[in-house]
Each structure stands twice: as structure tokens, then as C-alpha cells.
Amino acid sequence: MVGDIARFLLNTVFTLFGAALLLRAWLQVVRMPPYNPVSNAVLQATNWIVLPLRRILPSTRNIDWASIVAAIIAAVIYVVAMVWLAGVDPLSLMPTLLIVALLTVIKWALNLIIWLTILMALLSWLNPRSPAMPILYQLTAPFLNPLRRFVPQLGGIDLSPILLFVIVQVLLMVVTRAAVSLTLFGI
After folding, report:
1. DSSP string covering 147-168, please?
2. Which pairs count as long-range contacts for 165-172, CB under 8 Å and 24+ apart, including other chains?
3. Quick check: helix, strand or coil at residue 34?
4. Sequential DSSP letters for 103-159
5. Who's near 179: CB < 8 A, 6+ residues apart?
6. What does the radius of gyration of the chain's CA atoms come to, in whole angstroms?
7. How far is CA 167 from CA 10, 15, 22, 183, in A?
8. What torsion do the CA atoms of 14, 20, 23, 28 make, to the nearest 10 degrees?
9. Rounded to a whole number, what is the distance in angstroms from the first to the last CA of the chain?
10. Which of 14, 71, 114, 132 is deepest in the core (most CB within 10 A)?
11. Membrane-spanning residues where (predicted)?
């Protein structure tokens, strides 16, 4: 039971932190201004690891390499800790664990897309004039706009978030299955 609690806490902390690092990178890609509350919170939560890495890995073409590498480092630490908690020697699986760490980063990114899409859909129904709506729209538009070309609106209802949700869920299943098959247990 203690092991289950430890795995749950590790999963929660590392998933939130990994998502924050990926969100930081995504905020730069979509050119989100740093003075809005979302950007500011993400920057404050991740500056301690990203700023030192930025001295080594500068951004190029709106790609925040320091945030991406920080997410990979966090994923490696997370995977090693989860394997160690499962009672397996992490050093014996090191090449495989690096692949699983990359799959974990992909999983965090897919989860981030799901949560941003759900937040945007809920706010569009509950409070479409919310100050968060422009931010969420800017973050999800690159994923939703291509789908909007193929999915017709039914009575003014945009079904593209539902289609995106289904696509991302399928991708999550594939990534999770690949990680499980590489480690023989869930991460």
C-alpha cells in the first residue's frame, strides 16, 4: 500500500511538473505574452530548472529547447524512481528506460492537450467571456483548426474538441501500451 501511495504521488508531481515544462515550451511556440497570469505562473514554477539549462541550450525558431530538455530530464528521473519503487534495478534497464522516458514526455504532452481542450470546451459553455478563453484558444487552435475543416458544426456547436479528445485518447493508449511493453509494468 505504501508503494502504491508513493507511485501515485510521484506520478502526480512529475506529471504536473512535466506538463508545466511542456506548456512553457508551447507558450513560446504560440508566442504567448509572458505577462498574462498563466504564462507568469508557468515561468515561476519552472524557472529554477529552465534558466540554468538555457545558458547551454538557447531557443531557436521559437523552440524552447531548455524546457524540452528539462521535461526529458524530469521524465528520466520519474521513470527511474518508478522502476526503483517496483523493485527493479534501474541500471539494468537504462537504455530501455531512456525510451520509456521519451514516451513519458509524449504522454505528458498528450495529457496537456486533453486538459487544455477540456478547459476550453467547458469555459466556452459556462463562461465564454472568461479572461482565460483567449489564452486557451491560442494554445488549442493549432490542434483544433485543422479538425474544424473536416468536422461540420451542428447547430452552432463545435464538435472538433470531441474529435481531438478521441484522437489524443487513442494516441495515449498507443504510447502507454508501448511503455508497458518495454518495462513489463505500468509507468
Report:
1. HHTTS--BTTB--HHHHHHHHH
2. 165/114, 165/117, 165/118, 168/110, 168/113, 168/114, 168/117, 169/114, 171/110, 172/107, 172/110, 172/111, 172/114
3. coil
4. HHHHHHHHHHHHHHHHHHHHHHHH-TT-THHHHHHHHHHHHHHHHHTTS--BTTB--
5. 100, 103, 104, 107, 186, 187
6. 18
7. 27, 20, 19, 25
8. -130
9. 17
10. 71
11. 7-27, 65-85, 97-126, 162-185
Which pLDDT value is given to residue 186?
Answer: 59
- Interatomic CA distance for residues 97 and 164, integer angstroms: 29
Residue identified by cell 463545435 is 158
Backbone dihedral region of 115: left (phi > 0), alpha (psi from -120 to 50 degrees) or beta? alpha
